[in-house]
Amino acid sequence: FFLSFSFSRQTTFQDGGEEVEEGAVYNVTLKKVQIQQAANKGARWLGGEGDQLPPEHTVRQYETSKIRAIKAGTLEKLVENLLTAFGDADFSYISIFLSTYRAFASTKAVLELLLDRFGNLETSSHGEVANLNSFESEVVLRAEIASVLRAWLDQCSEDFREPPDHTCLLKLLDYLKNNMPNSDMESKVQNLLKQFQNQEVETVDGFCSTSSADLVDGEELEISNPEEFSSFQDHVVAEQLTYMDVMLFKKVVPYHCLGSIWSQRDKKENKNLAPTVRATITQFNTVTKCVVSTILGTKELKIQQRAKIIEKWIHIAHECRILKNFSSLRAIISALQSNSIYRLKTTWMCVSKDILLMYEELSEIFSDHDNYLTSRELLMKEATSKFANLDSSEKENQKKSQKRLQLQKNKGVMQGTVPYLGTFLTDLIMLDTALQDYVEGGLINFEKRRREFEVIAQIKLLQSSCNSYCLIPDQKFIQWFRNQRHLTEEESYKLSREVEAAADTNILSPKSQKSMVKRISTLFLGTDVITSPKEHTPKSSPVGGSSGESTDSASVSSCEFNHSETEDVCVTPISSPEDPLKKGSGSNKCSVFDKGSGSDKCSIFDKASGPDSGPASDKSSGSVTCSTSKVLPVYNRQNGGACIIRVSMDGINDSVYKSILITNQDRIPDVTQRALLKHNVEPDAVEDYELVQVIAEDKELVFPRDANVFYGMNSHVNFDFILRKKA
């Protein structure tokens, strides 16, 4: 008789060390695959059950292959690796490079290297094809370049948008005409060029921006009309907010979110940098302002009427949750926790118990515990799911949720997921702060780019999921939304005091010494935290703060907006013993960093990076070998001889913090120089500045000229520093 064979495979990976070439360092991993062959037919005769045979009747074979992933290299080597990565079994390299190269090179530089150096068949010394004859070399090299170009156009076509000339796209078209005439790719590039030329300079849709320029002459911004707002059904408002969020999020260019790019937005020459990210932030803040204006815009409302508006916004937030729109959901919750709304105690007392429970549950989604672990896990769980998972701890709310969800399912249309973009921006800024750009020998640290790509890939996945939405714009609501008058923090607080003038023992005026007001933009900006000058709170805050709370939770006293601060709005997550909302009151403290809770599971930086990402390197290290530690430095915690501090400039940018990575080797001159560079100040006169740590509102720690900052700092308070000119 004939025996048929079944195969089982077992794969193991083994670290193969490093390979060093001129201009490049590679990580080597050995992939060992064990193939076990077993005779199925006649197994019972041989004493086995099913596929299980005695060892003497199995055949084991082993296959070993080498995976070579570039760890660091010159730009030339990184571009060359685009053509060899597939052969080295580094299958994700092309996507990683295309998603992150803008952090260290321009589109023009990469395209010139790819086409002029490696695409020139006469002069190319491409190693993989060196042993082939001329014709075979041409075929192989042309196929490799075509594969890279195709991936580039599919994944990152926005890289070639350079109005009005589109120089790089024309260069690419010329190359294709000469080397791949009449190909599909040539047609694709021609169509892309026509598309760019037919469009005006890229501007993000203006439905989320409200300014006098958007209005017809003589038209004024409206003070919110409660009756008109009440006429919109809750699910309609949620759907329209989701529609606007989806349209903007799908337009986000992922590389705009990279820490090295987003952190440069404050420079004067970069006022138009990352417009797709700015548009998303503006929409978030517009939703928040709309919530505040609808609640406070009409002073004549009775308390019960105002409570009904709050209830309506909570219902809208719940509808956003059903639609998996975490951006508007968080914007609404943040607005309800703002100083001017949260202090309306009498109004909140009129909100029904069931609605308060719903509000508390929605607030818990954005609890800052373990670096927002709840929202992170929920986002990843529902990223590609067809519908929201609405398990509620409150039975009545769960019944309502399931009923609404069933209506969605009956429509037969899947839903995407709109994330709160600030989480990703924070992670990318932290990665940029913690990992160095270059390693020994001036090589580009590509391990850093692999770590960044882990975050970028999540953004792309969610953007893809947004294609599942099928929402139709309601022009009546969008027009109403556009025309809403947005109150400043001062105006909203004044109106709030007029509505409920009772004395506040725990909630202070915007002009008082310790306002717990926070700009929404700090949720997005991550390491660039905006605070009011001279206002710093110790770790153990006496006002509504828990032990270990960072000044990410307590800050600004004024939100007077100017042309450079149109992305900012004030909210205040404040708790007090008399507040009617005990559980929800501290659920959204807006801290963007892990504050030393003791958990090692809370952050993207705490996980192992996997075979493709490799270990992290220390930004101040000069070694090409990256640190083997899986936990990167974080704010407010000294960890492994390193930590992240935040430094503001006294008298210049004293309302903006910049994050600086320091190690136990750094002294005052080094830290001062890096802080000046971060604040875009010429670091020529380092000796003219002194560095001080804020201990309390009226207490500072002044460092001697050559002090070691790491060992000299007070680790029991926030790691907040001020750089000021010496008297």
TrEMBL record:
A molecular function GO annotation: guanyl-nucleotide exchange factor activity
CDD domains assigned to the protein according to its UniProt record, in alphabetical order: RasGEF, REM
Domain of life: Eukaryota
InterPro entries, A to Z: RA_dom, Ras-like_GEF, Ras-like_Gua-exchang_fac_N, Ras_G-nucl-exch_fac_CS, Ras_GEF_dom_sf, RASGEF_cat_dom, RASGEF_cat_dom_sf, Ubiquitin-like_domsf
Residues covered by region (Disordered): 531-558, 606-626
Location of the N-terminal Ras-GEF domain: 66-197
One Gene Ontology cellular component annotation held by this UniProt entry: plasma membrane
Gene3D superfamilies found in the cross-reference section: Phosphatidylinositol 3-kinase Catalytic Subunit, Chain A, domain 1, Ras guanine-nucleotide exchange factors catalytic domain, Son of sevenless (SoS) protein Chain: S domain 1
One GO process term, biological-process aspect: Ras protein signal transduction
Compositionally biased residues, Polar residues: 539-558
Domain Ras-associating per the UniProt entry, residue ranges: 641-727
The entry's keywords: Guanine-nucleotide releasing factor
Ras-GEF domain boundaries: 233-502
Name the UniProt record assigns to this protein: RGL1 protein
Species whose genome carries this gene: Mionectes macconnelli (McConnell's flycatcher)
